[in-house]
Design brief:
21 helices, alpha/beta, phosphoglycerate dehydrogenase activity, transit peptide, binds 3-phosphoglyceric acid, chloroplast, EC 1.1.1.95, serine biosynthesis, binds nicotinamide-adenine-dinucleotide, single chain
Amino acid sequence: MAASASSTMLLSSKSSRASLSWKNQLASTSAFRVSGVTLPRRSLRQCPRFIVFSMDAKPTVLVAEKLGEAGLKLLKEFANVDCSYNLSPEELCTKISLCDALVVRSGTKVTREIFESSGGRLKVVGRAGVGIDNVDLAAATEHGCLVVNAPTANTVAAAEHGIALLTAMARNVAQADASVKAGKWLRNKYVGVSLVGKTLAVMGFGKVGSEVARRAKGLGMHVIAHDPYAPADRARAIGVQLVSFDEALASADFISLHMPLTPATKQILNDETFAKMKKGVRIVNVARGGVIDEEALVRALDAGIVAQAALDVFTVEPPPKDSKLIQHENVTATPHLGASTTEAQEGVAIEVAEAVVGALKGELSATAVNAPMVPAEVLLELKPFVVLAEKLGRLAVQLVAGGSGVKSVKVTYGSARAPDDLDTRLLRAMITKGMIEPISSVFINLVNADFTAKQRGLQISEERLLLDGSPESPVEFIQVQIANVESKFASAISDSGEIRVEGRVKDGVPHLTKVGSFEVDVSLEGSIILCSQVDQPGMIGKVGSVLGEENVNVSFMSVGRVAPRKQAVMAIGVDEQPSKESLKRIGEIPAIQEFVYLGL
Ligand SMILES: NC(=O)c1ccc[n+]([C@@H]2O[C@H](COP(=O)([O-])OP(=O)(O)OC[C@H]3O[C@@H](n4cnc5c(N)ncnc54)[C@H](O)[C@@H]3O)[C@@H](O)[C@H]2O)c1
Ligand SMILES: O=C(O)[C@H](O)COP(=O)(O)O
């Protein structure tokens, strides 16, 4: 998953070298030209992580899929540009060893083999669009190759395509067009349904989802949205009510999908969830094919639960010709056209070309997906705290009750270091990463963390608590607080009313040391179950035996309590994910008042 790929990158000391000014790092060597600096004439393969061009040569950019003219022009001003479309994987592997940068859309799989075949010469992969699921990020990082994308330029195009599919589906435009062209005139068969006054549920209220909502309001639809992480005031501002997942399913006449494909959203529409929908619901998908169980959709269409579906994206693209889904008469399909407008393609072409040229020049990019930015020595010292920061972010956001919307986060660093000696940018970026990546298609690193947080209306304030003692360790503890939200685990709310988690690094391992007002101590290595109960004998045994029966290994257990036999929180670290059944059984233990499972 991208999240882990980019954290690997951020932690890898080899890639961290790329974070230093390339000029400075390479100034002491000689014979190749590196951003105007002379380097030793040794094999290019020996220094794959730097921007290295032979003295007189321009870099070479391979454009493997059609790119807008304005983008090509920008690339050509700086580099030799080879536009070679429809290359086979073998041809791409052969060509890549002669290229410094590669530009693709979603149709080219940028695999590990490609990075291996590049022999270290490939420095930048530019994705002219949002999704980078076609790029092997871990391999890119391992090979010191920067990946940049174009995250905003096709938002409107995707939203417009969603609306085009919605209206075309409601009025059978595609089917009626095909029948007229086949010489038929079926006015009774293609009676449609009206949109005005109907309820549209927008699932995923991010960039594309909110643009779809805005347009659907203009069509006179009643728009609701489900997005556990969207701020309610942003929804309110365009007259959209945020609702729970089940409420969205139960009340929608139309459902439009706009969430990223993540482990949590994979096949989120399936037999079970189709059964919760209004009979005759109509579904639009311009997000990713994998969010729907396509076989279940065929069953729901056959059963009349789903009256129609309009799909731009598929689990496998292109889908097999004989796919029952594609052939279904109530399905309208387009070949992943969401971003395919002249304007969007010019926009993404410029966005990606600027990022690729900037990266080849050694500049930082706000759309870098895997760029490390911290000097190696700082990174080495901060390494365990970086892991702690990301995990605290991940834990904190999972404690937020759906629909609350996170707006304000306060991070407190307890440190004996003078403020000037502690650069918290990376820690803050990792907290942001931990909070946003699991719920979004955005990839966070030091370059884009603040930008992304701001774009999402997430305010992160930092406070440093100057502690007495030895400044040897850069940080004693990190505390993350989320204000003005409800929690799905009430005991995580501190006395002052915020969700609060706090952690420390012990022997190089990050630990969770506080939840709400309760002191706990559990290593942040696997996943965590938090239970609240009145302190009493036997609780550890009861929970432990449920987990033991399922062979789930408990790595850590700790109980934080107000006082003996008073309110307590039990934190249990587990190496494996317990089944839903085991979690249910834990929740049914009579003394347990509430519990939550937090994946790390
Ligand atoms: N068809 C196309 O050509 C095309 C074009 C652009 C984008 N896309 C796809 O559209 C999707 C949305 O793109 P975006 O730019 O709006 O991304 P975004 O990150 O701005 O928005 C995604 C939203 O989904 C929400 N979300 C995450 N998990 C959720 C869940 N379980 N339930 C409900 N909401 C959840 C997030 O909070 C976020 O607000 C992505 O999958 C992207 O790849 C497709
Ligand atoms: O992720 C994206 O940006 C869209 O799915 C568009 O993909 P495309 O560039 O292949 O059209």
